[in-house]
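Backbones bend. Our protein:
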Amino acid sequence: ETQVKELQLSDSLTSLRNNRYMSEFLQSELSQCSRYDNKLSILVIEVDQAKELLKSHGQSGIDSLLTQLSV
């Protein structure tokens, strides 16, 4: 059961946490920060021109980029 939940909350390619996990995590963290008057920083990375990369290098190019970014 724990392994199934882990698979539901992680990206299969990069093993990074997915949107579902982030929603749950942020809700919990924001609540805790509010309770203890702490600050929270979030870093979001967006891949520009992903559509062009997909056209020029295909899905394997996108997969390779995401794998490299996740390290």
Notes: Residues 18 and 42 are 15 Å apart (CA to CA). Helices lie at 2-8, 19-36, 50-69. The mean pLDDT is 90. The chain has three helices and no strands.
